[in-house]
Each structure stands twice: as C-alpha cells, then as structure tokens.
Design goal:
By secondary structure, this protein is mostly helical. 76% of the residues lie in helices and 3% in strands. The protein has a three-stranded antiparallel β-sheet with strand order 1-2-3. A hairpin with a 2-residue loop joins strand 2 and strand 3. Helix 14 packs across helix 15.
Length: 447
C-alpha cells in the first residue's frame, strides 16, 4: 500500500509543479490585469503548499519519523510568514519572485530532508535567520542613495575577504573556498559576488572613460586571479562573466565583449596547463566512464541517477542518490531528477529561468543607470550560476562545483541568494513607483 501511495504522489507532485511553472510564465502576458495576476499568485501559493504537503507526507509514510511532520509544520509557518510579510511591508513587491523563492526553498528542504534530515534542519534554520535580515533590505535600497559612491570600499572588502580565504581557508576537493569561525563555515565568495556587482556598477556609473574602464578591469581581474589561485574556478568564472556582461552593457562596445571572451579563453587554456585540479575536471567531462573509478565517479553517478529516474522519477526515497559524492551540494539536481523525474527537473529549470527573466525585465525598465547595472549584474550572477550547476551535472560543461541557488545545501549560498532576491525586490518597488509617478504626470498633462 505504501508503494502505491508513493507512486501516486510522485505524479501529483509533477502535476502541481507543472501547473505552477505554467503560471510563472502566464504572468508575463501583457493582457493580464492586476486582479488576474493576483489570482495567478494565489494559485501558485496553493500549488506550492500542495506539492510541499504531498512530498513530506510521502517522507513520513516512508520513514514513520514524527520529526518529519514537525519539520513540515515549521516550514509551512515560515512560508506563510514570508509571503504575508512581503505583502504587508511592501505593497508593490514582486510577488512572482517571492513565490519562486519560496518554491525553490520548499523543493530544497524536501530533497534535503530525504538525503540528510539533520542538514535539512540546519538549512532551514539558516533560511529563517537569513529572511529576518533580508526583509529589511528593500526598505534600505529605496532610502539609501550613497551606495553608488562606495565603489572602492566594495573593492577593498571583496579583495580582503577573498585574500583571507586564499591564505587561511581550508582546502576541500583541491580548492580553498571557505573557513570556519566559531564552528560556522563561511564561504565569502558568495557574498563578495554581490558587492563585486556594486563595485563594477559604481565605477561604470561614474565614468566610462578608457582610464576608468582600465582601472575597473584591473581590479576585477584581481578578484578573479585570487579565486583562480584559491582554485575556486566556478567562482572565478562567475565573476569574469558578470564583469564582461556589465562592461558590454554599460559601454555598448562589442570589442570589449569580444576581447573579454578571447582573454577568458586564453586564461582557461593557461589554467588547464597550470592546475592539475582543472585537468581532472576536464578529463572527467570528456570521458567519465573511462575514469569512472576516480575522476569520473561523481559525474557518472550523476548521469546514472538522471537516466534511472526517467521522465517520472522513481519516487521519493525510492532511488539511490546517496551514491553520488557531495549530492546535497553540487549535484542535488541529479537527486531531484532521479526521484522526482525529468519533467519535474525541467520545470525546476523553467522556474529558475522565470526568475532570471524577471531580473532582466526589472533591469531594463529601471531609469537610474546605477540601479540598472546592479540589477543586470545580479541577474547575470544568478542565471549563470544556475547554468554552471545544471550544465555540470548533465555533462554539458565541466563541473565547476557551484551550488544550485536556494535548493542546494549551503548556508552561505542560501543567505547570499536571499540577499540578492531582496535587493532585486527593492529595485522592483522603485520601478513600480516610477511608473506610477509617470502615469500621474501624464494624467495631469491631459487635464
């Protein structure tokens, strides 16, 4: 009977998530009024809670652990508070981003509870603390204007943080990416990504002269170089791509973009020659089966998991994702694909894509050039990190060891992503107020 319940539940979760994903993109239709959009958001909330309830009911049925139900109840309260807080505190907040953030976290808590209940509880605790902090950010984004004048403070803070990790950080899988303080593991690069965007936006907002671009490029290259020396190649790649995109959009000069790609390609070849860590990942990507006992073990297990799950998955607690090394962090997408299915995994990608499109939409409609560049940089950071994570686990690109935002286990990643979403919320509220003011001016002119 339990197996039948698990089988039915997995199809229900796929249906709930597919309908939720459809609603994500229906919001972008121009003909939808605010009332219809509000109805879409209410349906999304309902679908999220149904999926969440279905998943944890299956976990309880499989484990008979009452702690699962208590943990589920705590999450429901948390999500209700998050959704209602944004509505109460910020009337003009982007409800789609709130819903997507909650949905991605719900999926993360669900799959982490299946993989490691203790880690899921720890992730949830960090999420609660992070949300308390992040809820105030949209208010400060609207009120504080001098953030655009602190470019060199951002650069100094970023370089010092990355340098401290390079010098004092613990080595994990050949890379120095974190260190421990009072028993808490911190990964500074997750937060430096955000202030790096503010640094680049501030510099290019002040001036786009050749001298200013040269100084900005040298400082940005210093960030990337420290990450390369730390062997945090995924982080280095994110910083590099974000800078190239922001530079191209700020200047409109295609030669900067082409030159950046050429320089990045040359740097990639040099990294392959200099670092054994890079060669190992490239070898594992080229032919993982040939080196399955060593370098290719993780990617092979990832591909086996995705293939075994098929379109509809094996069902929660019915697969073997624990055979994948570091499955809770770098390869959680494979665990989701195996037990919840390929359709569910595609919907997950589409929800992430809707967040990315929303970021770009907000960036394009902002009038303030500084805010526009920051929103573009943060959107690129998020979108490219999703691409690196999923591209690595499906063998589209070599694995870079970065997490899937809001889903993978990792306190620093979760905290920084919630900050990123909160900053974008602040920009969205500014955009909505600008639109309202313009509408009032046009109305007064007609009268």
């Amino acid at each position: 009977m339990s197996s039948i319940f698990c089988e039915v539940s997995k199809y229900l979760m796929i249906i709930f998530f597919a309908l939720y994903t459809w609603e994500c993109f229906s919001v972008f239709q121009r003909k939808k009024t605010k009332e219809r959009q509000a109805a879409v958001f209410r349906r999304q909330n309902m679908l999220m809670f149904l999926l969440h309830f279905d998943g944890f009911l299956v976990l309880y049925d499989q484990t008979q652990n009452s702690s699962v139900l208590i943990f589920y109840g705590a999450q429901v309260i948390f999500f209700l508070i998050v959704i209602s807080s944004y509505k109460l505190l910020y009337e003009k907040s982007a409800q789609l981003l709130v819903n997507n953030m909650c949905m991605l976290m719900a999926i993360g808590f669900l799959i982490l509870s299946r993989l490691s209940f203790d880690r899921a509880v720890k992730q949830f605790t960090i999420a609660v603390g992070s949300m308390i902090f992040a809820l105030g950010i949209p208010f400060f984004i609207q009120k504080i204007k001098f953030v655009r004048n602190l470019s060199w403070i951002y650069a100094a803070a970023g370089l010092l943080s990355l340098g401290a990790v390079a010098a004092l950080g613990a080595t994990s899988y050949g890379a120095k990416i974190s260190f421990r303080i009072a028993g808490i593991t911190l990964q500074p690069s997750e937060f430096v990504k955000i202030i790096f965007v503010f640094f680049v936006a501030g510099m290019l907002y002040q001036s786009r002269s050749l001298k200013q671009i040269a100084v900005t490029t040298i400082t940005a290259a210093a960030h990337v170089l420290i990450l390369v020396l730390s062997k945090d190649l995924g982080g280095a790649l994110i910083f590099f791509v974000v800078y190239i995109v922001m530079l191209y959009v700020a200047t409109g000069n295609p030669f900067y973009f082409i030159g950046g790609l050429a320089g990045g390609s040359a740097a990639a070849v040099a990294a392959y020659k200099l670092f054994a860590h890079v060669r190992v990942r490239v070898v594992a990507w080229q032919d993982p089966v040939r080196v399955i006992e060593k370098e290719g073990y993780q990617i092979c297990q990832s591909l086996f998991a995705i293939g075994t799950g098929g379109w509809f998955g094996s069902g929660l607690n019915q697969g073997m994702p624990e055979k994948i090394p570091k499955v809770e962090q770098d390869v959680i997408f494979s665990a989701i694909s195996e037990e919840l299915g390929g359709i569910f995994a595609i919907c997950l990608i589409m929800v992430c894509m809707s967040c990315f499109l929303m970021f770009l939409n907000i960036a394009m409609q902002l009038k303030d050039r500084f805010y526009k560049l920051v929103a573009l940089g943060l959107g690129t950071t998020y979108g490219f990190q999703v691409f690196l994570t999923i591209g690595g686990v499906i063998k589209f690109i070599p694995s870079t060891g970065v997490t899937l935002p809001l889903v993978s286990y990792g306190g620093s990643s979760l905290f920084s992503t919630m900050i990123l979403f909160a900053i974008i919320q602040g920009f969205y509220i500014i955009r909505e107020r600008e639109g309202k003011q313009n509408g009032q001016k046009e109305e007064s002119l007609r009268q």
